[in-house]
């Protein structure tokens, strides 16, 4: 380059830099010509990110305490967010409607707070949380009916019978909670404080027994809902609702499960109110009574829901042969846990742990229903041998497959085995993660402990039923008592008869003696 041209080159370079800076700072226009440069499509990434629902910590406490968090027929329960949807193209991200938590001290007059102690303020906060939770629950139940049930029925997306199966007795729960909310609002003072709530809860809580039918229907409702999601009309409708602001990024099942989660939360709410209630307060006794009532209701619903869930799965077991049927399955009233596991060959299995038997099945579709075909003979928990396998201890089936397998595929294994005479089984099962594996191990160990304790208890009862007889032989306790009674009766009867006989004999001897004397005197 010539020296005299150097200032001109600098001026051109400065102009180019200024032009690039201006183009970088100016907003992008849709009418601009496409450039050869690769530019990251920020707008599409933003819209795509808006479709991903946030992780929400849903209540994990189920009534039957099973491992499977949901019943899914296929992977359609989680839609493919990257697939094209006609209604979501070039759509601006919707503003999610979020529910703000409210505090009693922020809702009502702050001047009242200066007149109350710290403990009383906490008590008012707990009572207000109970009332506010009722409002939110009523709003969600009405939303589920208005935004999901009625449109799907009107558009014929589902039949009325299917919707009744999925929604159950949801409509009957709305006036139930409206009644409690009305009672709580009636006893609230103008300044927002509430003096007594115990008597209200004692009178209202027995109404929660109506939750029995709703909770017992949840297993069948979830199964039908997941099955209907295979229909593209149902899936499209639910996805539209999920992307709408009113859903708060919650799917339909989250709304249907809200009543159950609210039910198990009542004991916690009442304990919180009781914890901040003075001992000399009139509510003290009523709150304790209310806690006992709700604990009994939850326990009863828990048992009935577990029995309903157990019956649901027992009816969907398919036996390849009659020899696979087991009375331990028929007599089971609860499912300890169940879920999907894999064997060392990668075959997906659905395993059920009933009270006294472990059943290994394969999920199949039979008559458009998800059923479970028995994979092997049921294993009695009493004779089951459990082994916790270390990572890398299991060798995957097939030499080539095992040689090229990564470390993730040989983790989280445990083994269950059984041997009884000529029959023997051994299964190496893989869980999804370490937490799932530990849950299975705990459930199986607890089931074995219960069976063992029940066996010992029956032996003790049997031994207590038998007592040693006088001659040293073992005689049932009832028979021993009866025999002792018989012996005592016999002894008393014998002694009575002997005394009577001896008396009669003496009388006869005296009579004979007198007659002999008379006869002698006569003879003389």
UniProtKB/TrEMBL annotation:
PROSITE patterns: DH_1, DH_2, PH_DOMAIN. Keywords: Cytoplasm, Guanine-nucleotide releasing factor. SUPFAM superfamilies: DBL homology domain (DH-domain), PH domain-like. Gene3D superfamilies: Dbl homology (DH) domain (1.20.900.10), Pleckstrin-homology domain (PH domain)/Phosphotyrosine-binding domain (PTB) (2.30.29.30). Residues 334-449 form the PH domain. One of its GO terms (biological process) is positive regulation of Rho protein signal transduction. The keyword Cytoplasm applies. One of its GO terms (molecular function) is guanyl-nucleotide exchange factor activity. It is found in: Cytoplasm. One of its GO terms (cellular component) is cytoplasm. CDD domains: PH_RhoGEF3_XPLN (cd10572), RhoGEF (cd00160). The keyword Chloroplast does not apply. InterPro entries: DBL_dom_sf (IPR035899), DH_dom (IPR000219), Endocytic_GEF_Adapter (IPR051480), GDS_CDC24_CS (IPR001331), PH-like_dom_sf (IPR011993), PH_domain (IPR001849), PH_RhoGEF3_XPLN (IPR044129), SOS1_NGEF_PH (IPR055251). Pfam families: RhoGEF, SOS1_NGEF_PH. Residues 122-304 form the DH domain. Acts as a guanine nucleotide exchange factor (GEF) for RhoA and RhoB GTPases. This is Rho guanine nucleotide exchange factor 3.
